């Protein structure tokens, strides 16, 4: 237990030391970025000195507008180049997939299809076999039994019920019984 406590304490100490180093490194990086930013601004953006006369102010505005236009053109050109390169990358990736033989499988949908239609779709014009299973079955004639004849003679049971219902039906039953 004594060794495990010492190991845990050492681990905690190392962890805190690493965190302190990381914090100091982050602070150094932010300071370096700030200095780099100041140097870039001093180099590319000279301090603005506003002239006193109206004509000089108009000239300054014209120069600034010209700079803005040139920067916009550069931005547009870089955007177009970026779009073009991303399109080329996509095409190259597609070619790479094609060469490897690995394709993305499209999501499949369930389709109801008969066996004939499936074979026709797979084999095309080679498909000669008819998969209609019922066509190949033997035709069997049923022998007329007496039971089936009786059922046919009785006919639809609804008609019999309608005939027997009401006074007419009872009269027929009475007359039949005599």
TrEMBL record:
Protein name: Troponin I, fast skeletal muscle
Subunit structure: Binds to actin and tropomyosin.
GO biological process per UniProt: cardiac muscle contraction; skeletal muscle contraction
Gene Ontology MF term list: actin binding
Pfam families linked: Troponin
Keyword hit for Methyltransferase: no
Keyword tags: Acetylation, Actin-binding, Coiled coil, Muscle protein
SUPFAM superfamilies on file: Troponin coil-coiled subunits
InterPro entries assigned to the protein according to its UniProt record, in alphabetical order: Troponin, Troponin_I, Troponin_sf
One Gene Ontology term, aspect cellular component: troponin complex
PANTHER family named among the record's database cross-references: TROPONIN I (PTHR13738), TROPONIN I, FAST SKELETAL MUSCLE (PTHR13738:SF15)
Function: Troponin I is the inhibitory subunit of troponin, the thin filament regulatory complex which confers calcium-sensitivity to striated muscle actomyosin ATPase activity.
Family according to the record: Belongs to the troponin I family.
Coiled coil: 54-102
